[in-house]
Subtilisin-like protease SBT3.9 isoform X1
Amino acid sequence: MGQLNIIITMVLTVVLNLQISFVLAHETKVYVVYLGKKTHDHPESVTESHHQLLRPLLGSKKEVHDSVVYSYRHGFSGFAAKLTESQAQQISQLPEVVHVIPNTLYELTTTRTWDYLGLSPGTSKSLLHKANMGSQVIVGVIDTGVWPESEMFNDKGYGPIPSRWKGGCVSGELFNASIHCNKKLIGAKYFVDGLVAEIGVLNTTENPEYLSPRDFNGHGTHVASTVGGSFLPNVSYLGLGRGTARGGAPGVYLAIYKACWSQIGCSGADLLKAIDQAIHDGVDVLSLSLGSPNIPLNLETDVNLFAMGLFHAVAKGIHVVASAGNNGPAAQTIANVSPWILTVAATTLDRSFPTAITLGNNITTLGQAIFAGPELGFVDLTDPERPLSGDCAELRANPNKTMQGKVVLCFTADLNPTSMAVVNAVTAVSNAGGLGVIIARNPTYSLIPTPNFPCVMVDFELGTDILFYIRSTRSPIVKIHASRTLVSHHVATKVATFSSRGPNSISPAILKPDIAAPGVNIVAANRTGVVMRSGTSMATPVVTGVVVLLKSLYPHWSPAAVRSAIVTTAWKTDPSGEPIFADGSSRKLADPFDYGGGLVNPEKAARPGLIYDMTIADYVSYLCSTYYNNVSISQVLEKKTVCPNPKPSVLDLNLPSITIPNLKDEVTLTRTVTNVGPLNSIYKVMIDPPIGVSMTVTPDTLEFSSTTKIVSFKVRVSTRHKVNTGYYFGSLTWTDSVHNVVIPVSVRTQIFQRYYDEN
C-alpha cells in the first residue's frame, strides 16, 4: 500500500509539472510593439492596421480586441498587447515591426559679455566713458603669463606710463623685455623658484613651458585680455561668437606676474612672491583666477599665507578679485573665502551655439557644440550597446570597430567639467574611424572645440530620445549641421554647473561667493588669436574689469566700498528680467550660495546710493572673532594687538550680506551704511525675511544730510522653527525710491547646536 501511494504521488507530480509548464508556455504579459512612423494619417486607420497585424497570430477579432491594451496612433505607430513569449517572438519577425520589448515598470522619481552686462561704449553717459576706459588704473594679473604679440595688448593711444609705477619687465625664454612690453603691458615677471625647490628643475621637454613671462598655457593671456584687452574688431572663434573682442576696461595698464606653470600648477611660495612683488610695484587691483584649497586656516600653511598675503594687499588699498573655484555644484566647495577678497562665481551668457542634429525620421534636435563644419551629411548612427554599456568613459578602454564610419551616441553622468570622459570618447571614436560623437550628460558648459569632428552635447532627455530612435530603427542615420551663434534673450542665464558653491565651511557667517559674472564660453586672446574658455577663471576678470572702472570713477573708495557697490546693485534676474537658475544634478532657482548678491550690474554699481564700508580695523575684528590669537594678529599687523574680551561677533562684520549659520532663538546684529548718493536722502527699509524667520530693523528709516553721512542700524532676527533646518533665504533693502540697496540674507536654524544630521 505504501509503495502504491509513492507511485501515485510521483505520477501526480509529473502531471502537475507538465500542467505548470503548459501554463507558463501560454502565460501572457504585456509587450510593446513599436512600428515606427505612422503609415496612416487617420487614427482609426492606424488602430485597424494594428489589429490586422495581430489577427493571423491570435485568430479572431475578439481575441485581438481582448489582447490590445493601447494603440499608439498619433505621434508614432505601435501598440501594447497581452502576448505570450512565443507570440512576441513571432511578431518581432514581421518585416513591419521595428522592436518588441516587454513592458517595464518605472518607479516614481565676451565678444558678447560686455553688451550682455549693459557695459557698452555707445553713449557718453555710460560707465565705460565716465571711467575713461579704466585709464590710470594698474591691474596685476597673477596667472600663467602673457602672449605679448596679441593685438589685444597693443598700446595705441596710450600716453606715458604713470610715474608711480615701480615695476617693470624681466626677459627670459622667448621674451625680450625691451621689445615685448609697451605702454599698456607695463609689467611682466615670472616666479618659479618655489616650484623648483619643491620638485627640482623644470623639465620643459616633458612639460613644455617657457622660463619667462611668456604664456605657454594660454590661460593667463585669456584672463588679462578679458580684464583690459584693447578693441579687436570682427573676431570669432571657429566662426562662432563673432564681434568685437575687448576687455572690461580697455584703457587699463596691465602687469603680468607668472606664478603658475602648465601641467604643474602654482607653488604657494611663488604666489606669495608674486603678491609681494605686485604690492611693491604699485598695482591698484589684483586679479587671481586661481583657488586655494578649502581647508581651515592655519598660520603655518601656504593656504593661510596666500590669504594673508592678499590681506596685506587690501591693507594697502589694493582691490583683490579671485575665483570661487570650479568644484560645483556640490555645497561647501567655495574657495577664496576671506572677507577681504571679492569672490566670483560663474554664469552663462545669453549666447549659445546650437548645433542641429537631424535624425533619419526628420526630427531635429538642437544640441550645443563648437563645430565649425562642414556639415556632416546623413551617415550611420549607433550607440555602443554591446559589448559596451554606452558609457562615454568606457569607449577608449574598449575600442570597437563597429564605430567606423558612424556617429556614436554615448552617455556620461560625470558633472566635472574637466572630466576626461568626453575627451576620451572623442579620441576613441576618432581613432576607431568614427565620424562624430553625441554626448548625453548633465549640463556642464564644457564644450570641446572640434573644427572638423563634431562633438555635440545634449542632455539626458534628448539623448534618450536619440537612443530610442536608434533602438527602434533598423538603419538609423543622422546629419550634423555646423554650429551657429544664437544671442539675445531667447537663452536663459544660469549659474554654471562647475561654479563652486557656498556655504563657507571655514567661516560660515561670511557669505561666499560675493557676486557672479559670465564665465562660460568667453572669447578672449590666446597665443594664436582668440579662443573660448569656461570657468570661474573667466568670470573673475569680468568682475575685475568692473572694479577697474569703479576705481577710476571713485579713486578713493576702499576695496570694501567697491565690493558693496557691486553686491548691493546686482541683478537677481538676468538682464531681460527672467529668473536666474543654478544648474547641477538638478536645476533650481539660484540663491546666495550660488551667486552671492546676484549677477554683476556694472552701470548700477556706479550709482549704489549707500555702501557698507570696512577698514582694516574691521578685518582685525574678524580675525579676533576666529581662531587667531593676539600674538598671531600682532605678527600680521606688525604692531601689538589685543583682541577684546569677549570676542567680537563675526555677525557684526560690516558685510553687504547677513548670514546666520546657527540661529537658535534670536540674535541682534549691527550694520553701518555710508551715503554716497545725494546729500539729503531718506531711505526706508523693506524686509523679505527667510521662511520661518522674523526680522526687525531699528531704525526703519535712515536720514542723511551734509553733516550725517554714516548711519548704523540694528537687525533683530528670530526663528519660529522648532527643528534644525537648512538655510532659508531672504533680503534686506534700503530704498529712497531711486536707489535700491539690497543685501542677501541667509539663515539656518540650529536648535541642536553643532549637530550633524545624516538624514
